[in-house]
Amino acid sequence: MTAVSLDLAKAHLKVDGTAEDELLSLYLEAAETWAGNYIGHPVADLDPIPADVKLALLKLVSFYFEVRSLATFGLSVEMAPQAVTSILDSYRKQWFAEGEANV
To answer: Fewest Cβ atoms closer than 10 Å to its Cβ: which of 5, 8, 19, 41?
Structure first.
């Protein structure tokens, strides 16, 4: 189960019907995995999941959905939209090597 429901993602994207359900489910799972890697722990660890994290996931799913044709042409999209990283930064765990300061 993902942090954001398929129905909420479809409402956010204004997608009707079920033709895109499998693709959107993949994007939801990928967005949650990406966000978990970015913040340094699974999104599910944020229990309950804050609304702004859900919004970041919806923005990332929207980004994946809107640029899906770029992947068809072999272009890679490596960066998430700045709005996504800006939201997730406050949930990010930071690691510092011994002797480094958190400045």
So the answer is: 19
Q: Which domains does the chain have, with CATH numbers?
A: 6-91 (1.10.3230)
pTM over 0.70: yes
Higher pLDDT, 75 or 83: 83
77: left (phi over 0), alpha (psi -120 to 50) or beta: beta
pLDDT score for 35: 95
Q: What is the sign, positive or negative, of the torsion defined by CA atoms of 5, 31, 18, 10?
A: positive
Neighbours of 21 (CB within 10 A): 14
Instruction: Give the whole-angstrom CA distance, residue 54 versus residue 60.
Output: 10
